[in-house]
Structure formats: structure tokens, C-alpha cells
């Protein structure tokens, strides 16, 4: 999992050392020597994570973190404070400034990479929702302003803790209005969490540790709990299972003896991040459902998907367009009627949607054409997705009244090159689709370099 990391430290030797460690793990790295430089770099470079030293002149790391988290353009970037300060009060101060994690020097390779991977997983989800929100904003659908964080009524679930620890943690969180449920076994916990209503899970790493880790893994394997914040409670000598827990999807941890202020700060940060993600999702659901939805298939419409591709390309991320056309669709309309044709389009839309990842966007492009936008330019991944779409349509007949008919699709794939405009990408996919039709249909064709020279007129629909 690669990413952009901004290293902030006023000591050049420290920056170079950390950069070398990160580049050895194939991260992109940039440096900043002060708080002011860090803020400027965060705006100009859009890092995925900021590693921030505390002891810097003029503006220390705490103040820099506060300013980053107060800015709507940078508040979503995870900030990890890396410092020689080990006092609990300093950790709490960093967390209250908005830091997503606090690492004490010297930081082991395993600890650093485990924390980075955990934060990157969360940021990928947030970025996907932010990108869609930006697309909605460009369409004139404004999001509601964020509400202040209110913890009253928040519910958390505690697992595998003894009665004394449950009483301690429950008392600490009650001061913020958070109710803590304890005492259920893991099977009951899965049922409770699947039903919703919980904002956080606290998981004690009491022996046997493997059982706790297995439960953590099961949370991330379920769609109902995949994004639910998970905080581990462990002992200082449990670094190995804690790191394993991060690799399995844990978001944060707290060590025994538990400091009340640190626990509250870490829980507040997790709840704040969850509420932010929920607000992005709710805004998208509220504002886009009618404005950018194709009324027949329930997919996004042409305008939205094109804008989404525009946003990906402007952000400099990898992007691919798949233009999909239903083979011999006119025969379906002529032979069975337009209502049956509509039914086929609806069913195809459902089948293809089921084959895509959460970060992919599919829309009805017009008539019997669909446009799929992927946030990747990896050849193998793109072709695997295109193959799944083909099989999802072709492998199961469509029921029309008392008859079953086979339907296939043809797909043109265009992987975007750096600096390419969305019109050119879609045109290249259109040319590849035309070639797929000419080659016999029910196939995937990839755009060649000559297909990316500029817009062409599509003749694919005529086949």
C-alpha cells in the first residue's frame, strides 16, 4: 500500500533518516522544515499522511496540527505526531490538537508501518466519499455545514474485559456522555453490531490474544461493521498482538494502566472521524439521489460519471474508463417490446453494480451504454474487473415473460495517461468499444495509443 508521506521536522538529519526508511517501503516522501512549510506543503502536495515533530521553533507541532485540522482543505489528512516526548500529558495534548496518532521516538519499523497502514485504510474510505461530495458540489448540490461534535447518546461496545476493567472504562467514558455495554459474548456481539446503533468497539487483548484478533478480523470482514471504529486495550508488553491488530483493521489503541484523559481523547478522535465520514455519506445520499440518478436503472447519470472522471484526472490519481454496450439490444426491443428492453437494462445495471468495488462509479451513459469509472490504472486489476462485468451479464439468461434469453455486452477500456482530459479518455474507450463490436461482440478491447489522439464519432451503437 503506497502513499504520499509528508515528513515535518526542523532537524534535517531526522527528516532524511525518516525519508530513507519510508522510501525503502516504496512510499513517496516530501519534507518540510517548519510548521509553516508543512501547512504550505499540505495544500500544495496533498499528502496522504503527515508525520509531524513537536519540538520546532516559531510554531510547534501541536499548533501546526491544530491549524491543519481547523482548515477544511487539510482537516481530513491524518497527522501522526512523532516525538521524543513520552509524557502522557503530551500525548493527550497532541490528541486534543487533532492528531490521529502519537508515536514516541525511537519508533520501530514495524510500529511505524503498522500505524501508517491503519491510517491509510481509513483515509481511503474518507477520500472516496470526499471525491463524490466534490463531484456533487460541482453539480451545484451544496453539502450541509458540519455540526459540532456531540457525544451525548454515543454507544460503545466493550468485549473480553473483566468486571473491574469494564467498570473503569465505563466510568471514564460516561463523563463524555458515552454509554458502554459490556458482558456479551462474541456471538451476541456480532448480532448487536450488525443491528447498528453502536459508534465504537473497544476490544481487550486479554488472553488468549488470538481470540481477540480473530474477532477483530471478523469485524472487518463484515460489511455491517467494516467501517466501525475499533480501539484495542492492551498491556505495554503486548506490542506484537497490538501491531497485528492494526494490520487486521484496528484504528487505535490505549495501554494499561489506562489514563482517563488519553482514553477520552482517543475515543473522541475516533467518533469525530466516524461522524465526518457519516456526514459525507449522508450529504451525498441526500443531495445526489434525485439530481444525478438515472430514473430507469437507478445508476448515476451521464453527467455525474463524467464529472467524477474529471475529478479523478484533476487529482492526478490513476483512472480508467470502461464504456459498455449491450449487444444486439435493438433486437430485444423489436422482438419483446420496449418494456422488456427496459427490464434487461435494469437487470444488467444490477449485475454490473454487484461486481464493482466501493470506490468505482458506474452510470448509464445513454440508451444501452454504460460508463464505468475506476480509480486505478493497474492493467491486471482493470482487466479483472472488465472480465467480471462480462461474465455477470453473459453467464445467466434473462427472463422475459415465459422465455429466457442470453444477453452479452461489449466493452471498450481506456486507461488514462497523465494529463489526459476526460473527453479523450472516453473517446478512446469508445474507439475500443467499436473495435470490440467489429471483432464479434461479447469481448473486451483495450484502447491503443492511437485511440487517445482525440475525440472520434462513435459508431458502436450501430452494431
Question: Overview of this structure, please?
Answer:
The structure is a single chain. With 463 residues, this protein is an alpha/beta fold. Helices cover 47% and strands 17% of the residues. Mean pLDDT is 90; it is low at 454-463. It catalyses: 2 GTP = 3',3'-c-di-GMP + 2 diphosphate.
Q: Summarize the main sheet.
A: 5 strands, parallel
Helix fraction bin: 40-55%
User: How large is the count of helical segments?
Assistant: 15
The main sheet orders its strands as: 2-1-3-4-5
- Portion of residues in beta strands equals 15-25%
Number of strands: 17
| Structural Rg | 25 Å
What is the oligomeric state here?
Answer: single chain
Low-confidence runs of at least 5 consecutive residues? 454-463
Overall average pLDDT: 90
Which descriptor suits the 3D outline? Answer: globular
The rounded distance between the terminal residues' Cα atoms is 42 Å
**Helix/sheet category:** alpha/beta
InterPro entries: CheY-like_superfamily, Diguanylate_Cyclase, GGDEF_dom, Nucleotide_cyclase, Rev_trsase/Diguanyl_cyclase, Sig_transdc_resp-reg_receiver
GO cellular component, one term: plasma membrane
Modified residues (4-aspartylphosphate): 53
Domain GGDEF: 317-449
Outline the fold blueprint:
Blueprint: E1 4-8, H1 12-23, E2 28-32, H2 35-45, E3 49-52, H3 61-70, E4 79-83, H4 88-96, E5 101-104, H5 109-138, E6 155-159, H6 163-174, E7 179-182, H7 186-194, E8 200-204, H8 209-221, E9 230-234, H9 239-247, E10 252-255, H10 260-291, H11 302-314, E11 320-326, H12 329-336, H13 338-354, E12 361-366, E13 369-374, H14 379-394, E14 398-400, E15 403-405, E16 409-415, H15 422-438, E17 444-446
Parallel strand pairs: 1-2, 1-3, 3-4, 4-5, 6-7, 6-8, 8-9, 9-10, 16-17
Antiparallel strand pairs: 11-13, 11-16, 12-13, 14-15
Helix pairs in contact: 2-3, 4-10, 5-9, 5-10, 5-11, 12-13
GO biological process, one term: cell adhesion involved in single-species biofilm formation
EC number: 2.7.7.65
Protein name: diguanylate cyclase
Amino acid at each position: 500500500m503506497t502513499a504520499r508521506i509528508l515528513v515535518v521536522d526542523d532537524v534535517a538529519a531526522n527528516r532524511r533518516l525518516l525519508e530513507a526508511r519510508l522510501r525503502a517501503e516504496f512510499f513517496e516522501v516530501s519534507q518540510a522544515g517548519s510548521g509553516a512549510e508543512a501547512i504550505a506543503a499540505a495544500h500544495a502536495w496533498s499528502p496522504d499522511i503527515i508525520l509531524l515533530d513537536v519540538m520546532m521553533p516559531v510554531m510547534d507541532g501541536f499548533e501546526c496540527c491544530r491549524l491543519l485540522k481547523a482548515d477544511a482543505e487539510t482537516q481530513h489528512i491524518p497527522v501522526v505526531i512523532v516525538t521524543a516526548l513520552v509524557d502522557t500529558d503530551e500525548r493527550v495534548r497532541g490528541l486534543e490538537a487533532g492528531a490521529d496518532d502519537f508515536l514516541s521516538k525511537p519508533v520501530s519499523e514495524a510500529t511505524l508501518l503498522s500505524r501508517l497502514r491503519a491510517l491509510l485504510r481509513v483515509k481511503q474510505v474518507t477520500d472516496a466519499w470526499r471525491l463524490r461530495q466534490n463531484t456533487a458540489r460541482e453539480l451545484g448540490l451544496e453539502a450541509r455545514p458540519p455540526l459540532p461534535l456531540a457525544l451525548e447518546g454515543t454507544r460503545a461496545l466493550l468485549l473480553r474485559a473483566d468486571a473491574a476493567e469494564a467498570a473503569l472504562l465505563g466510568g471514564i467514558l460516561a463523563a463524555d456522555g458515552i454509554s458502554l455495554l459490556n458482558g456479551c459474548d462474541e456471538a451476541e456481539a456480532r448480532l448487536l453490531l450488525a443491528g447498528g446503533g453502536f459508534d465504537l468497539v473497544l476490544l481487550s487483548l486479554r488472553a488468549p490474544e488470538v481470540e481477540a484478533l480473530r474477532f477483530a478480523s471478523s469485524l472487518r470482514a463484515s460489511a455491517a461493521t467494516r467501517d466501525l471504529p475499533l480501539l484495542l486495550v492492551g498491556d505495554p508488553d503486548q506490542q506484537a498482538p497490538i501491531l497485528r491488530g492494526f494490520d487486521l483493521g484496528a484504528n487505535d489503541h490505549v495501554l494499561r494502566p489506562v489514563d482517563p484523559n488519553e482514553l477520552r481523547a482517543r475515543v473522541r478522535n475516533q467518533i469525530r472521524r466516524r461522524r465526518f465520514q457519516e456526514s459525507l455519506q449522508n450529504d451525498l445520499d441526500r443531495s445526489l439521489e434525485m439530481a444525478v440518478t438515472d430514473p430507469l436503472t437507478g445508476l448515476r447519470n451521464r453527467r455525474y460519471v463524467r464529472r467524477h472522471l474529471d475529478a479523478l484526472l484533476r487529482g492526478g490519481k490513476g483512472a480508467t474508463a470502461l464504456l459498455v454496450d449491450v449487444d444486439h439490444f435493438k433486437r430485444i426491443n423489436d422482438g419483446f417490446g420496449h418494456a422488456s428492453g427496459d427490464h434487461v437494462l435494469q437487470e444488467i445495471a444490477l449485475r454490473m453494480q454487484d461486481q464493482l468495488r466501493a470506490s468505482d462509479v458506474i452510470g448509464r451513459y445513454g440508451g444501452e451504454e454504460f460508463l464505468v469509472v475506476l480509480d486505478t490504472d493497474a492493467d491486471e486489476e482493470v482487466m479483472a474487473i472488465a472480465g467480471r462485468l462480462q461474465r455477470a451479464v453473459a453467464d445467466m439468461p434473462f427472463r422475459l415473460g415465459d422465455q429466457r434469453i442470453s444477453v452479452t455486452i461489449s466493452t471498450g477500456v481506456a486507461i488514462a495517461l497523465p494529463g489526459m482530459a476526460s473527453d479523450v479518455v472516453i473517446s478512446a474507450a469508445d474507439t475500443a468499444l467499436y473495435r470490440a463490436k467489429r471483432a464479434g461482440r461479447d469481448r473486451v478491447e483495450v484502447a491503443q495509443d492511437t485511440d487517445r489522439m482525440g475525440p472520434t464519432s462513435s459508431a458502436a451503437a450501430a452494431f
